[in-house]
Fold:
Amino acid sequence: MTTSPAIEIAGLTKSYGDSTVLGGVDLTVPAGTVLALLGSNGAGKTTTVRILCTLLRADGGTATVNGYDVATQPAQVRGSISLTGQFAAVDELLTGRENLVLVAQLRHLPDPGRTADDLLARFDLTDAAGRRVSTWSGGMRRRLDIAMSLIGEPPVLFLDEPTTGLDPQSRLEVWATVRELAGRGTTVLLTTQYLDEAEHLADRIAVLHQGRIIAEGSLAELRQLLPPATVEYVEKQPSLEDVFLAIVGGDQQEGTQR
Structure:
């Protein structure tokens, strides 16, 4: 049995005046996978995501999300997706539980309180549920933001640079969350400028450069594009991340107790 792609893009174009942002993007994202879309500033990553989320109309080409055309079936696309931007869109005057209940009510779910409690447990936020979000760490707020995005169980999740501005431990918390989502079958399209993030999280990686996808595949496939490595014996030094986590104890969950 063949499963249809969660996201399929063909010949997508977008320009602003004489400036071409997307010059014919082609990309397929299989259902239940994590795809990292890499590119420098101005490469067109956010423009691509905005088109796929029906927030922006393309000039040409086609794109489908969960089988729905973004141009002709925008309502069905919006019902199939959730978008988490670069900064956590949470109400810091409310508690964590109140944020989740509010979104569940807006989505007209039958039991908003139970939905909130289930997500708090799933994202290891139950102990902080009754505190105002303004007292939470950056990693906890980002996990809450992602939890809010999952209310209604959308099959496709867009994460636009989700770890921008986070400290190393908070980044690891978000990475664990993305892995957990992928394990449950959620399709994730992740834009990032952090190459280590793509390396740790993505099943497949696409490189967007000057408005086009210039390379796409698994990390192993992309490595084959380079000449064979020269074998040298060198002393391996710990990375700064290794040093930092050793100094602070490496407790990824420490932030949840604050």
User: Anything to note?
Assistant: The chain has one domain: 7-257.
